[in-house]
Amino acid sequence: MDFKNAKKYILERLENELSPDLYYHGVHHTVDVYEVSIKIAEVENLSQEEKVIINTAALYHDSGFLFEYQENERLAVKLIKEVLPKFGYNRKQMDAIGSVILSTQLKARPNTLLQKIMSDADYDYLGREDNFKIAESLSKELKANGFSFNDEEWNNMQIRFLNKHEYHTSSSIQLRREKKWDYLRHLKTLKF
Length: 192
Hints:
mainly alpha, Hypothetical protein af1432, 9 helices, globular
């Protein structure tokens, strides 16, 4: 696998082709998820091949936004099947990467360790100091893409999501869960 050039390829495409109204799902989010996936994969003692699979999935997980806003995950899987063979990825590796990408769909439940790492990396920001700022970028993006809600509705959507969300890996539970609950408690105190 030529991970280095697969990474270069997708980051260049995301940098140059993503819609400018992707305030949350821009290339900065992909890089953030990728960097977190590296850290979690290290703590979880993945094999070298598993690390390449999770890191490739992190880099390509939102690449479907190059084509469509809704249901972008299936388009990301389609893209990896077109692109990754050029970088020496085999069918088994692409199937594993595709499975990880599909596990990032909003209502999906991660089952495998790689899917759990991806989910934790994708939602890492919920348990960080910058959670409010990142959530605001998601709100701005949703409004720019045709979703309509006021501040109170947005706050309630976040509360419902945070109540359902859970971290899956021991490292994310240890590092992020408490700050996520602080964020949830803060949202519950807001008055509109």
